[in-house]
Amino acid sequence: TLVDMRFVKPLDEALILEMAASHEALVTVEENAIMGGAGSGVNEVLMAHRKPVPVLNIGLPDFFIPQGTQEEMRAELGLDAAGMEAKIKAWLA
């Protein structure tokens, strides 16, 4: 299931809880810092409701990002399709 989380706030808590109830794990993807981003918000909602669902947060790491084109940086940081697929497969293994 793909859900568009266009905005971090307000989070659609009902939808997050619905996804948690109907899926064994969740993956969040954002072109933003993981810490304090949408994925962190999903984690907070799940913990506030005591829903122990595994969550993989994919996004920008917490270090200075070198410069390059968007395509180059997405590939380098694993935020392109191949990188996201590899991260998800490794996490699920």
Automatic annotation (TrEMBL):
* GO CC field: cytosol
| EC number of the protein | 2.2.1.7
Q: Write out the GO biological process terms.
A: isopentenyl diphosphate biosynthetic process, methylerythritol 4-phosphate pathway; terpenoid biosynthetic process; thiamine biosynthetic process
SUPFAM superfamilies (alphabetical):
TK C-terminal domain-like
* One Pfam short name: Transketolase_C
Residue ranges of every copy of the Transketolase C-terminal domain listed in the record? 1-83
Q: What domain of life does the UniProt record list for this protein's source?
A: Bacteria
Asked if Isomerase is a keyword of the record, the answer is no
Q: Which GO terms describe its molecular function?
A: 1-deoxy-D-xylulose-5-phosphate synthase activity; metal ion binding
Which of UniProt's keywords are assigned here? Isoprene biosynthesis, Magnesium, Metal-binding, Thiamine biosynthesis, Thiamine pyrophosphate, Transferase
What top-tier enzyme class does this entry carry? transferase
Entry cofactors = Mg(2+)
User: Subunit structure of this entry?
Assistant: Homodimer.
Query: Mind telling me what this protein is named?
Result: 1-deoxy-D-xylulose-5-phosphate synthase
Q: Which organism is it from?
A: Escherichia coli
